Amino acid sequence: MKQSTKPTNQMDHQMHPDEWALRVDLAACYRLVALYGWSDLVFTHISAKLPTSVSEEEHQFLINPYGLMFDEITASSLVKVDMQCNKLDADNPHPVNPAGFVIHSAVHEARHEAGCVLHTHTRAGVAVSAQKEGVLPISQQSTFVLASLAYHDYEGVAIRDEEKLRLQKDLADANYLMLRNHGLLTVGKTIADAFLQMYTFENSCRIQVDALSGQNKAADLIAIDPQVLTGVAHAMKVQTGGLGGNFVWPSLIRKLDRENPGYDV
Length: 265
Known about the structure:
The protein is 34% helix and 11% strand. By secondary structure, it is α+β, with helices and mostly antiparallel strands. It has a seven-stranded mixed sheet with strand order 3-2-1-4-7-6-5, with helices on both faces. Helix 2 packs across helix 5. The longest helix has 21 residues, at 191-211. The model is unreliable at 3-10 (pLDDT under 50).
């Protein structure tokens, strides 16, 4: 988590430091998503659950102000909402998109340990989501995804609460969810975890699209031995020193500070 400065706006005197730290990390995540080319104009969301140290209410979240590009988002512009996406900070002038929060609320409702839910509509992600076999075991990146991957069939634009139960059933305890004909979603205990998982998910899809380009077919590709998947969780712990996304998050923050500062205000 970035050791951020305190807010200098009117929120300064009334905000819990844990909320401000979460806001800074979430704003950074939005800008990193834009920096890596995963944003879809003002659409899709990244939600972060507020810790119990901030509020006694269990289900409070931060989400993007609807209408801002991801590279414009700041810590203070993020909107606090409840499970129904009702605004909880009346002084915040920015609107929210309740319809766009349906998927996120479904995940947070079913997965209480989820600190962050990250959803994208990338070109490669949507392309693979439309392929019958989904993610293929053809890259090292794909092994991390396949070790915790679920699928949810497309039911139209996700604006109906009745879809939540089906999505929750499909997701179960997976950390990667492929929304068929729609996009990618990751569930992380922290913002850093969700981002690193999406980085891996997106690269798996990009590699697959490249591998299938030209005259190649799935049958022509070299598949990884299924037994390799059984050791993936241990391999990831070794690779990140047991820190998960927090292993790379400080370096990502330094990159963002160089290339798109100003998110932490």
